[in-house]
């Protein structure tokens, strides 16, 4: 083993390699950028309904079709990245290409479509074409996270930090962006406002670009062949398309992660902005409150996640962290459902807001206190579970290398995301069909839609019900996930021997 290479300062005994924590923080910008762009697609149905001329079911179905397309492109691009990416740096190659494609196509989608002639097929065709290209860019950015997390660090003390930092920043960003969306909806009087999408796109695109630049700088010294390939790959044993079937067949930890994550992602995609609008804008009576509520509940949830993943994950392993997180989320989500059903949601309020009756905040009501406790605890446990996924996928990549002799993080990550997206893609369609069944086939509920018990039940099923189902699946999957801390020590020693260049 050579000892005079610059990368040796990142290598320890036992096959362990690491980075300074600031690089982990900086590289989380890739995850942050991906979630920023994903966020604008979560409210895309309003744009499709208002400006592209699609009815509710068709608008929701297009979201499903685009997500399926996103999944189909994953294995193709993952294979290309693993075959050719090291010429440029696998992670940096994906960051740059993904960032450029996303910036250009999202601009065309949300700033040009509504200015085209109305009627006919011009707007729908234009939007669909550039949406397909948008998701190609998202695939590249998504792969950058899977590849980068593998070469960034395999230190068992640091991999949970990947998730802690990444989840913390993403949750804060989501809460902040929910406040932005709610404020823009109030500012322009509707979610179906072209000006809302123009302004929101600018905020997203500029923020995401800054995050990608920071991630590029942070990953640079680790994004090299030494951390991306084994000896056999250096001598010509490159990735093959047939490896996809081998990976899926032989890698049980990967299959268990797919089961856990796909059900969770299905729940997330069912929790659309239209569902949030019903719960807070119609049932609670003040949609603007949703932004502040998300920020308040997120902060405490993040503290729980940091303790859960940091303490439980580092001491007992990531599997145990996911089990505890999933079990806790089931309990408190069920309590939240009962509170929405039997409490008075219109009394929900926070300092600086008015409640559903139009009354200014004068003190915390019983409903506010109870739903706050259920929300922060449920959200916190859910964060413990969801934030375990990224470091677990990095472990699965190392396990695959130890078994097959190949580092193929692009392929492992994309077979994971392909099935994930294939299943979760149907979330918006299921929501759209549900809206049609309850009488909203042509237009989504908006801020002026009157309250009904049917809307309440509908919102609770998609906001909490699917999340509970996903966490039950997590508990089942983790019974068969065997990458314990002891097992991972063996894996890293094996991989270290394979990584040697001479």
Give a nutshell description of this structure.
This protein is 75% helix and 0% strand. By secondary structure, it is mainly alpha-helical. The model has no long low-confidence stretch (mean pLDDT 85).
- Counting DSSP E segments of at least 2 residues, the number of strands comes to 0
CATH architecture: Up-down Bundle
The CATH class, by name, is Mainly Alpha
Bin the helical content.
over 70%
Series of secondary-structure elements, N-terminal to C-terminal: HHHHHHHHHHHHHHHHHHHH
Envelope shape:
globular
Structural class by secondary-structure content: mainly alpha
Give the termini separation: 7 Å
Main β sheet profile: none
Estimate nothing, just give the exact number of structural domains. Answer: 1
Mean pLDDT: 85
How would you sum up this structure, described in words?
Helix content is 75%, strand content 0%. The chain is an all-alpha fold and 502 residues long. The chain has one domain: Growth Hormone, Chain: A (Up-down Bundle). The protein is globular and about 65 Å long. The relative contact order is 0.16. The model has no long low-confidence stretch (mean pLDDT 85).
Please write out the topology.
Elements: H1 21-42, H2 44-52, H3 56-84, H4 90-111, H5 122-152, H6 159-188, H7 194-219, H8 225-228, H9 231-234, H10 243-250, H11 252-270, H12 273-283, H13 289-316, H14 318-342, H15 366-386, H16 389-404, H17 409-424, H18 426-437, H19 453-478, H20 485-499
Helix pairs in contact: 1-5, 1-6, 1-7, 2-3, 3-5, 3-17, 3-18, 4-5, 4-7, 5-16, 5-17, 6-7, 6-13, 6-16, 11-16, 11-17, 11-18, 11-19, 12-19, 13-14, 13-15, 14-15, 14-19, 16-20
